[in-house]
Amino acid sequence: MGEERVFWFCTYTPLELLQAAGLEPVRLFGLPERAEASDALLHPALCPYLRACLSQAMEEEGDHHAVFVNSCDGMRRFHDAWKDLFPGAFVFFMDLPRNEGETGKRMLAGEYRLLLSALRSFRGAEVTAQDVINACEARERLRQRYLSAAEGKSGAARLALAQHFQSRPRGAAAPTRGGRRRPRAPHREPPQPRGGGLHPRGSGGEGRLG
Predict the structure, then answer these.
(1) Domain spans, the chain
(2) Pairing mode, strands 23-27 and 66-69
(3) Of 4, 59, 141, 204, whose Cβ has the fewest other Cβ atoms within 10 Å?
């Protein structure tokens, strides 16, 4: 079972579960200068980060698997546009508790179980407790690597380093001086939305505000 990338956008995304399933979590930061390319799918008044991310996704080659978190209305609309634009991708929508306490903990645990179930179906393999433990340990090692590399850095240099670790977490090369990004893919016209595909979701449901 080879590794495939899965895009993520929100800090509440359980990256350990994605990695435990053999996926490579990759964060998109978007192409702000190309945000208008998403206007056919997302309202121009929507969050510019989400519009920039969709514009970047339109230019990315390869798989477009993604996990979304029900953190705001913009993220819900972003999820809707993504699953229409990339019908062959694994797209999961995870709900979040709105309150602390035992009820919220039980709800979040349930969402994690739903995500694991969807990942098992998508990957065609079991995700064991040991897989999750191993992934947690690997993520912690990565966090320590970032903290070590970030020591003494601030401002744009630290931001570039954080983006490097989140967008290409297993890449060995450090960001270039000044934090320049990798060369961008050639501009392509946005594909037209299509139906179908595998789009499991958590218990949030369409329009649920919690």
Answers:
(1) 4-167
(2) unpaired
(3) 141
Write the pLDDT tens digit of every residue in 139-175.
Answer: 999 999 999 999 999 999 998 998 888 886 554 344 4
pTM of the model: 0.77
